[in-house]
Amino acid sequence: MKAQTKESQSALSQNQIIDLLKKGNLRFLENQTLSRNLQQQVEETSGGQFPFATVLSCIDSRIPVETIFDQGIGDLFSVRIAGNFVNDDILGSMEFACKLAGSKVLVVLGHTACGAVKGACDGAELGKLTGMLEKIKPAVKAVTNPVDAAQRTSANLDFVNEVAVKNVSFTIDDIRSGSEVLAEMENNGEIQIVGAMYEVATGKVAFL
Ligand SMILES: [Zn+2]
What we know:
Strands 2-1-3-4-5 form a five-stranded mixed beta sheet, with helices on both faces. The protein is of the alpha/beta class. The longest helix has 22 residues, at 157-178.
């Protein structure tokens, strides 16, 4: 596998990129990942990087982004924060990735059994984590079922996972409303913003 070049990056369409990610996840699921000489890719990318996609995902150790999409050095920009939400610094990173470095697909990747989502559901409090979890609370509120407060905790995994899906969709809204650069690129068809969910029990990515 050769590392991406300016030419290979510009030749890929947005749909081809999403297809590359889907096929990479299938190879990962089937334990048929491609053989890569990573040191060769280090050398090939030493003069520059041309990643085709940007993935915003959680810090969760079970979701190493390049591994689950079977990609190599220089293929993906990877932004990771507990609960995969955005703030101005993350939006700035994404603007760099898309506007300046040519990435054409922006994936917001949530996951099942997310600890940050569980913490937001439970109203967990600890140091700086308290304020961080506030970013996920709108998604907790937006999932209206079940009504019974006793069922709206981390013990109810179905609820937690529904909140995680809602959080992906709110994060996409926040990207559009928070970054004029990315919103304009999307409106012009220069980038595609898509949501996806990773299932920690199986390794499967489902695009939403
Ligand atoms: Zn998580």
